[in-house]
What does this fold into?
Amino acid sequence: TQLLEQSPQFLSIQEGENLTVYCNSSSVFSSLQWYRQEPGEGPVLLVTVVTGGEVKKLKRLTFQFGDARKDSSLHITAAQPGDTGLYLCAGRPFSGGYNKLIFGAGTRLAVHP
Amino acid sequence: EAGVTQFPSHSVIEKGQTVTLRCDPISGHDNLYWYRRVMGKEIKFLLHFVKESKQDESGMPNNRFLAERTGGTYSTLKVQPAELEDSGVYFCASSRQAGTQETQYFGPGTRLLVL
It folds into this structure.
């Protein structure tokens, strides 16, 4: 069974602080995606990383795919209250239904003014 | 372009009853997925349609769950008879083209509570 362990589960910080969310697995994924979900809505894709070691930036958000394609991180610089939400990582396996997504349990982020 | 829509948004039923969830994908999207999140757990894959064909149904928990996509447009997910452990949020997602760079667009989900 392929699992994605996401940490921390909860994060409460002050505006302006930096934070990192981790997504780890013992399995290799062909790609890994990060989503953000708001209450009452479905997950919305933020980024897809495909190549081992790949780094992508989206304004104050930096996403990295591990060299072995087993782990990923999301770093937010100078967090804003608008960053509050549920962040999910999801990996696409190499085999056994490669189109399905394997999700982590999520990190619930609260940024206080 | 309208997003993925799901109906109903909420459903409360008693154990043993039947419930049918509906998903309307984005127009032109051949790929349609069903996922669900039960309380406190991660979102889990249920099945994948390509047009009207079931491409992968490895995540379907048991034969109480039946998914259909007649005509390759909207899809229904029927739970019969519902059990307490079926409670959770059921998400539908659609995409135009599958693959490593695929973007799945998720609907808002149906919140199912089985009493």
Summary: The interface with chain B takes residues 4, 30-31, 40-45, 48, 50, 88, 90, 92, 96-97, 99-106 of chain A (CB under 8 Å). The two ends of chain A are 41 Å apart (CA to CA).
